[in-house]
Amino acid sequence: MVRRNVVLGGRESVKVAIAQVSPVYLDRERSIERACQTIREAAAGGAELIVFPEVWLAGYPYWTEGWDSALPTWVEGRVRFRDAALVAPSEDTEQIGEAVRDAGAYVVIGCNELDPRPEANTIYNTLLYFDRDGDLMGRHRKLMPTFVERIFWGSGDASDLVVFDTDLGRLGGLVCGEHLMTTVRASLIAQGEDLHVAVFPGSFALHTGPQLEEPDTEGAFWGHASVRAHALEAGAFVLSACGYLDQEDIADDFPYKGAMNDAYAHGGSSIIAPLGVPLAGPEFGSTIVYAECHAWMKKAWNAIIDTVGHYARPDVLRLSIRTDDGWRIVDSSYSGRARRDALRRSAERHDVDDALVEELAADLDDRRSAPAV
Question: Is 55 left (phi over 0), alpha (psi -120 to 50) or beta?
Fold first, then answer.
């Protein structure tokens, strides 16, 4: 029998939170300590899903580089940026996982992720997903770093464009400019998101000057429009997490201190209902933004526009994604890979045969796709 199509995992509501707090800039160890404290605080406030902004761990590169960069300054900045990146999984993620397990919540945190292969040193702009048990469910690497970001980060691939099945609902997320990549957003929508994480380094205006990015004070940040559009199109709740940076958290000896374009890292986070209406925010300054996401909001909107159901036209348009097995149509079954990966990790911890796990996962997928009796 096919499982009933539930919203928010069958919950009437889910309380969520955005940790709009400053990291200890480019200090991985102290930022992890602050993350753990903040996770516990947000969980004490009732949050079951806690989200941190883009590369919160341990800081966005707000400075400018070029061939005319002063060599000692460039070297020092690059070395600190590399040393502040973390490997996943590692002792760092285990430390975060302990706090997540104590909190009993799901956590999504942006980080600078160092390629785990011993021969590689590429850094990625990554979202890490932790489940209630503190286990690392998976990650998403930003597919295309934006503009000058390409000198700092490598490009992700399609292997982690997945939506995770959780007891809070189906959870996915993207990083900043990925929300302007229509087909990338469509790939998550096609997998049936209930909750979508959107992360940014701050809220900025692009039209004021004299700098290209200026602090948004008028609500003109393009991210606000993009996440509201995604909420409408996905019929999902969106947690839009915008970065906040306290100047006191930047070491005095950091060579770019006072010379970075970081004024727009002033927050601006919001939580959006499926109708595209803000439930909270935009809020500014150091704070934790909370909202209660009610299942009826998604159910009511889907009765009008169900973009992966009655309002879809698969006879006219289909979205394909390239995987290790070749091109395939994207739908909710695509995220089965994330579920199988989680089962495989669990099997390794309990010394269970991988082949048996794969067989059980395939059987589960078959049952879910079978016609109702």
Answer: left
